[in-house]
Amino acid sequence: MNWLISRRGEVIGTVGYMQKEYLMFQRLLGLVLVLGVWSPAIADDLPPFPKQVPPIVGTAVVADAGNGTESSEWQIALTVPQIQWEIVGELIAKKEWPQLTTQVKKVKLDIVMGGPSQLAESQVMDIKGNTLGRVRVTKRLENETPVVVSVSGEMPDAYFLQLTNADALIIVLGPRDGYPAPGFLPAKKEAVTKSYVEGDR
Prior knowledge:
Largest sheet: 7 strands, mixed
Mean pLDDT: 82
Number of strands: 9
Distance between the termini: 108 Å
Radius of gyration: 30 Å
Oligomer: single chain
Number of helices: 2
Structural class: alpha+beta
């Protein structure tokens, strides 16, 4: 066994051990250099800041698959939350803090697909923006399933889909189903005012 000895006569280690240490150091240095080169590239792949309203989350199920012909009408039952919020309380240091309270209403929509209509229908898409046909949608929505719902009439900005599952379904509401539908976005609760008519006082 070959030993490495310092100038002072101290044993540093074996030749084989020092070679292993040197190889490990080279690998770590290479890893640091690779990360340094690729980190900016990863940052550049982030989606741009959004230019439209965010989508909402709901659940959907095919309520009526139709008679099977390509032009026949079929329906999707969509359930979404309608949220109103308000701030209650005052800000008093160390005594009281305002609280955000919400009122959530369950809204059910019948999305009509296919059949004759003068208005563009809603679309069911995958996360890449590909429109899915009746057969695939019927299979995917055989049971009530979470879906992303676009109320802007367009495919949601990629910024809002960064944490969305790769196999998620996106329902883009069309004019036939009330697009645009900003009423489904969380909104400030309107103050209730009481009106009086002469004789009520």
